[in-house]
Amino acid sequence: MATLLMPCISRFLASPHLRPALNGHGTTSDFIRVSKSINHVVPRLWARITSAQAASRAVENDLQGYWKHVYICNSGRERQVEFLPFIVEDSKIGYIHPKFLKHLRRFPEVFIVRDDVVNGMSKGWVTLHELLQTPQLRTDAIGVVLLSLEMEGLIPGWRNEHYPVVISFGGRSLFSLERAAVPFFGIKAYGVHMNGYVQVDGEKHLWVAKRSATKQTFPGMLDHLVAGGQSEGIGCKENLLKECDEEAAIPAFLAEKATAVGAVSYEQIKGEAFKRDVLFCYDLELPADFQPSNKDGEVESFELVPVAEVAEIIRTSQRYKPNCALVVIDFLFRNGYIHPDQPGYLQLLQSLRSGECQ
Amino acid sequence: MATLLMPCISRFLASPHLRPALNGHGTTSDFIRVSKSINHVVPRLWARITSAQAASRAVENDLQGYWKHVYICNSGRERQVEFLPFIVEDSKIGYIHPKFLKHLRRFPEVFIVRDDVVNGMSKGWVTLHELLQTPQLRTDAIGVVLLSLEMEGLIPGWRNEHYPVVISFGGRSLFSLERAAVPFFGIKAYGVHMNGYVQVDGEKHLWVAKRSATKQTFPGMLDHLVAGGQSEGIGCKENLLKECDEEAAIPAFLAEKATAVGAVSYEQIKGEAFKRDVLFCYDLELPADFQPSNKDGEVESFELVPVAEVAEIIRTSQRYKPNCALVVIDFLFRNGYIHPDQPGYLQLLQSLRSGECQ
């Protein structure tokens, strides 16, 4: 699907209407209106409406503003041809860039590189040594290589978190590896992401988190309520409940009402790293008197915002962390804020699963 | 996407677990339990639970029962290679089978057939005569051809309904043609489909329609509440409101609360006909005291059924009209009745858009 969607994405991105959105980067004065009809109104931390956003309401039938988030999440995909497939048990489980591969070539007892050249084009691939027949042997051998590379500073952001490698989600693990190394092998990664909403006078409001200004990734950007990577040995719902507690202090008796609602996916290349993410989406309706609070210091504040306002923020700015914007856009699709009488509906819907979604 | 999904569908269909489901055809004794907590309980028209279904609850974590509907909707797709592309304004807008094409060859002032043979394989295509430069000229010329073929009995089920041909939904119409002819040209067709639900004691129930025993297509099968083809000159929501009135006597003030929630798609080949359908999905929450009634004689009766029971009917029988089953499966995904901790979640989710969804 990924390859076939590229012309569709390219066509939209070539649109002159989209250019201003892609060139603009949002401002700190983007508007979030806090509902006055609920009890736990917090100060208007995040600014006031801009004239640009007011003007944009005139073209609210225009879906192109949403595309910039799809574009950002899938940026660099045209460079996929530079990467060599990583093949294990006859399945293409990932992609490795030649620059990263040169480090792996130093370990021929673990990684085998085939350098076939067909019609002048490199058609090589990477696989594991034939003696590495079991998941445990592979995990151990790759683990030694990765530790060595990490000590050389070649794998930043080490997390001590083991990540299973599967052909499709829920399938048998072929081996596991340190999570920080996953993008260098172009291996699919899975996560759980949750929108928390409240019904206020019959209108849905979304809880919006503002990420801490000191957070390493996407500081100060907007986020939905809860998200987390899907590691080895834990179910999706179980993981979500854990993240609900850590990220928003949602007690288990509430969190377990979270509903699975679908998935989004994207593929992004930055330098030698190839991220191939699938995010399982959940919704949770929260009581009006519930106030989320963050335990791990990664969120500066939470605000409850009418969904239509969230839609406008996403459509007209880049204040949202891009992959979380996809999860919110999926919410907008499922709740009628984006509808088929708007031109480009199906292409945008399809684009939310631009990455291999298995 | 279509082509890439085929291995996935094939893999699931090859599963030994699925075989019994595909071979069974449901029985009239499939179970629909009528909720006792609502006022308008109708007689248990549609039968009692079978031992087979009771047994199936033991494996309710198994998603493979849903696949038979995807399979049926996409049956015959492996024969796409037999069809010649139909190209207008440099875009592939459809597919025509050689057997139907032989009739079109009699009209060289309208249809131009290119019969290139490359490496022994037919690589031909069909296009329109170069003089047919405008939508009106094309519509008129093709209309004359189709009327002629209809009089020869080659296009059954003539509807006197004009169908726009677009490259992507909402785009400029290249021409329009009689709806009955659409599958013979492999042109994408669009429809609006709506699930009607009621909250009873915090549990969602779906309105299930039983199609009339005298209906030409899929007589006696189960259906969701409202559906209709998307013709020329009407918006999706406007069309849905019209169908809500005709098919279930839902007044406009209720129907306009229907919410767009996404789309499903499939591609099916039967003989010379190639159906490429995209169905826009809507949900409508109805008040507990609303009773749908059918105006056009196409529905025998309606029953309100807990969603979990609908899920079981779909998973364990073929009583549902297949494309409507996809729309209900989409509802199950969006409402957590199918969730990521069930093996095969992502593949099934992806399969709901097996056809080109633009």
Automatic annotation (TrEMBL), chains A, B:
Name of one Pfam family that matches: NUDIX
Domain spans labelled Nudix hydrolase: 189-330
InterPro entries in the cross-refs: DUF4743, NUDIX_hydrolase-like_dom_sf, NUDIX_hydrolase_dom
A single GO molecular function term of this UniProt record: 8-oxo-dGDP phosphatase activity
Gene3D superfamilies for the chain: Nucleoside Triphosphate Pyrophosphohydrolase
Similarity comment: family membership: Belongs to the Nudix hydrolase family.
Function in brief: Probably mediates the hydrolysis of some nucleoside diphosphate derivatives.
PANTHER family on file: THIAMIN PYROPHOSPHOKINASE, THIAMIN PYROPHOSPHOKINASE 1
Name of the protein in its database record: Nudix hydrolase domain-containing protein
UniProt organism field: Physcomitrium patens
